Model the fold of this input.
Amino acid sequence: MFTYESLDKVADSYIPLLLVISFFYLIRLMIAKNWRKLILQTFSLIFYLGVAYAGMFIDLNFGIWARLGLDYSTHTALSLSIVMWLNYRVPRFVILWNMTLVAYFLLMLYQKYHSFADIITTSLPIGISLLYMRRLGADLWKN
Done:
């Protein structure tokens, strides 16, 4: 039915697909000539992605996950960041975004890319950071 390689291709396409969907949202703002919103939403997407990469940078420099016998999951951090961004930008699909994220996490477990602990310990600081930052800058991040 599904081979490791075919599932690997599915997993490899998930984050790029999320980015394409995000870019379509930004392109819609461009077509509508909603420049202020376009600029704010573009910077917010960059910020969300930056938080994921900041976690990776921290782990590379301080070895926090390695000390715990774990692996920082950049796949988890990026997918979570983009899905959280999409949840705020296109809330009518929030169930779909979150279902795909859970499916992606399950696929990473099935393919043995990361352990459950890797995914949880990456998701918690990234998710909490983004929720906290969103709360601090609620007016800036509004739809």
Notes: The longest helix spans residues 4-31. DSSP finds seven helices and no strands in the chain. The two ends are 42 Å apart (CA to CA).
